[in-house]
Amino acid sequence: FALGVDRVPTTVVLAQDGEVRSVFGGVGRSEELVDAIHAAMQDKPDAGTLYLTFDDFPSPQGGDELLDVLRAADVKATFFCICSHIESQKKLMARALAEGHSLECHSWDHDASHPQLDRCKEVFRRVLGIEPTLYRAPGSEAIVGESKHHPVVDPYDYLRPTKKELLRRVLSGTRDSAIIQLHAGVAVTLETLPE
After folding, report:
1. CA distance 110 to 59
2. At a CB cut-off of 8 Å and minimum separation 6, what does 11 contact?
3. Rounded Cα distance, 192 and 81, in Å
4. Which end of the chain is least crowded, N or C, by CB within 10 Å?
5. What is the pLDDT of residue 1?
6. What residues in the chain have per-residue pLDDT under 70?
7. Average pLDDT of the chain?
């Protein structure tokens, strides 16, 4: 459709096991096709491990709600933290640790050119009693300190796409050992997360 093609003889949507899920002929309707692809992906067999990460934690809003959604799904995540917020949000940070999440460094105040990592480590030790081992710079997908390279799925949720579009972006890039890079404090991310 991006190429301006709106008619094809036949489009077939297959599930992972090769079963035909939908067949479209003639005029292509992008909504129907996208819905069929989503439905076929729902039955995808367990393909391994995904790593769910959130940048910009703790955010001024939605922190407890985010942890509630993750707890309900029994999912653990890695949170890359804005370290200047740790002290004022220490109750939320302690909850995240107690629920088994990993807390890592995202910079002192979201400035990639001046991350102040020593200051970040100090507040982690003093307030949380832990030492961060990973660092993801603001505006970056790369994780410093990661022992193995993993493919990253960055759906640009901070640009606030629709719920349906965010889900499409995440699912289309997801594969075994992928890191899904989301952001705390983004309403559409919180709404889409249960799916």
Report:
1. 12
2. 23, 24, 25, 28, 33
3. 21
4. N
5. 46
6. 1-47
7. 86
